[in-house]
Design a protein that fits this description.
Keywords: Leucine-rich repeat, Repeat. InterPro entries: Disease_R_plants (IPR044974), Leu-rich_rpt_3 (IPR011713), LRR_dom_sf (IPR032675), WHD_ROQ1-like (IPR058192). It holds the Pfam family LRR_3. The chain is an alpha/beta fold. It has two domains: 47 residues, no CATH class; 169 residues, Ribonuclease Inhibitor (Leucine-rich repeat, LRR (right-handed beta-alpha superhelix)), CATH 3.80.10.10. The protein contains four helices and nine strands. The chain has a nine-stranded mixed β-sheet. The termini are far apart.
């Protein structure tokens, strides 16, 4: 388990409960994914870790090979979650989602980065993540919409949705947003809360070819 990997110095957990993986372990994981995926029609990850320590506060795992987080993982202590270039389709399976609703609510999460997760079909439920400040879903090409609760995340200042080519709907945004990248998104309309937000210092709507009109500032 995790303890064995720590003893072998293949992973380490820092004083801030951040999980770091040795380069050798990451390379082994990539080899397992490659070997298991040959000839089976879809990638199979039976040899990948089935659990993660629930005490983790900072998790960075580039090219995570599964479609969701391990079913036994409780993310209530997470402060930062970075999983760029992953194979995630959704962050939680059904049982985890129920747990999030009634047990742990991601109330400590401040940063989430799932950029370049091309198969991510839905944004994780962050409705109770009132500390969230930074969301990066750049190049999540399967995303179609962002949930309306985003407007209530009043500490959120950074949103990167650039190159989300299928993102068609953007709800009202919270008033503290300072950075909003929508480059190459498929949105048809820009919410008034974005256009009238005086705190935004960076707004990129370049190549938004389906954008029909901009809201009036009056």
């Amino acid at each position: 388990g995790i303890g064995v990997l720590i003893d072998m110095s293949l992973i380490s957990i820092s004083g801030s409960n951040s999980l770091d993986m040795h380069d050798l372990l990451q390379e082994m994981g990539r080899e397992i994914v490659h070997e298991d995926g040959i000839g089976c029609g879809k990638l199979c990850f039976s040899k990948c870790p089935k659990s993660l320590p629930n005490t983790i506060r900072y998790l960075y795992w580039e090219r995570y090979p599964l479609q969701s987080l391990p079913s036994t993982f409780s993310a209530e202590n997470l402060v930062e979650l970075l999983m760029p270039h992953s194979e995630l389709e959704k962050l939680w399976n059904k049982s985890q989602y129920i747990c999030l609703l009634y047990c742990c609510n991601l109330g400590n999460l401040k940063l989430i980065d799932l950029s370049y997760s091309y198969h991510l079909a839905e944004v994780p439920d962050l409705s109770h993540s009132r500390k969230i400040q930074h969301i990066n879903h750049e190049c999540c090409a399967s995303l179609v919409q962002i949930q309306s609760y985003f407007q209530y995340l009043d500490k959120l200042t950074y949103i990167h949705l650039g190159s989300c080519w299928n993102l068609k709907y953007l709800p009202e945004m919270p008033g503290n947003v300072e950075f909003l990248n929508l480059k190459r998104a498929a949105i048809k309309e820009l919410p008034l809360s974005v256009w009238s937000n005086e705190k935004i210092s960076f707004l990129d709507i370049e190549y938004c070819e389906y954008l029909e009109h901009l809201p009036s500032s009056s």
